[in-house]
Amino acid sequence: MWPLGHAAVAYLLYSLWTRTTQNGATFRQPGAEGSASIAVAFLLIGSQFPDLVDKPLAWYFGMLPTGRTLAHSLLFLVPVVLVVGAVTARHDRLEREYGIVFAIGAISHVLVDAVPALWGGGDWYHLLWPLTPVEPYESGAPSVIDLFVSSLGDPYFLLEFVLAGIAFVVWYRDGRPGLSLVKRTLSREPEPHGDG
After folding, report:
1. What range defines the domain where residue 90 resides?
2. Is there a domain that residue 196 lies in?
3. Which residues cross the membrane (predicted)?
4. Number of domains the chain contains
5. Are 27 and 36 in contact (CB under 8 A)?
6. Residue 42: exposed, middle, or buried by beta-carbon count in 10 A (0-12, 13-18, 19+)?
7. Contact, 110 vs 49, CB < 8 A?
8. pLDDT digits 0-9 by tens, 129-152
9. Residue 54, in any domain of the structure
């Protein structure tokens, strides 16, 4: 799955988690916009984390056999998620949620990458690498353009745009959490102080 699809799946799971555990309070509480913005930032980083680690190490440095190995393995990722959770748990209640949303993003990433194995379109071996073998690149790392072109006719690739559209609608209805952080960052305004 491409970055857009991973972000969309992660956001939909985050929104569902927020609605079921907190009745949507993270999005709607006065002063919660700052916390929701930071949570969405943790979520997006988590949703891209496995690729941000594995792709450069495999494609550019040749340190890994494929772009789905180390950070796509639950044997590595679960301890990373636990460390992020432990670091964020050292702070107040809202900051503990940042570790949870990072976990939602990161774990959903590797599980969604394994979904094509259900219909024979891929494999799940990366989930337990290095205990389970992965097929190394035969002729070097693929190019992003080649991967994109080969994905164009794949229904799984096209599904990403549907998921992104649904995630956009849900995000908009949730009050567009994270947008204020982007606006402040682009305008270089300081983060507001207070509860959020």
Report:
1. 3-187
2. no
3. 69-88, 100-119, 156-174
4. 1
5. yes
6. buried
7. no
8. 999 988 887 777 778 888 888 888
9. yes
